[in-house]
Design brief:
108 residues, alpha/beta, five-stranded parallel β-sheet, 5 strands, globular
């Protein structure tokens, strides 16, 4: 996924865990977009999105999964149901990134 986003012109930072994603965002001063799976090992996608939002109040999150965990997500959080195609992913990322002016998605 990082390759797809980089080829589309985004600065993507792939991480291996939610904890690593949190370490990566500590040095970011501008808004960002978290793109993550709902089901992560350790910290789940919802907990990661909440932690990112706490550290960066202007951040947004796009969580992906086969089953959406929250029928009424907070405004900063969007879901993309699996399976999806590259065009669908890029369209959602572009729309969210434009709202938060986020050139740097952090991926998990």
């Amino acid at each position: 996924m990082a390759t797809v986003l980089c080829e589309a012109g985004y600065e993507a930072v792939p991480t291996a865990s939610g904890e690593e994603a949190l370490r990566e965002i500590r040095g970011i001063a501008r808004p960002l977009l978290l793109v993550a799976d709902v089901n992560l090992g350790g910290m789940d996608g919802l907990a990661l999105a909440g932690a990112v939002r706490s550290a960066h109040p202007a951040a947004a999150a796009l969580l992906m999964g086969g089953r959406l965990p929250d029928p009424d997500p907070p405004p900063f959080l969007e879901f993309l149901r699996k399976p999806f195609g590259t065009r669908q992913l890029l369209a959602r990322v572009a729309a969210i990134a434009a709202r938060v002016e986020a050139p740097r998605p952090v991926l998990h």
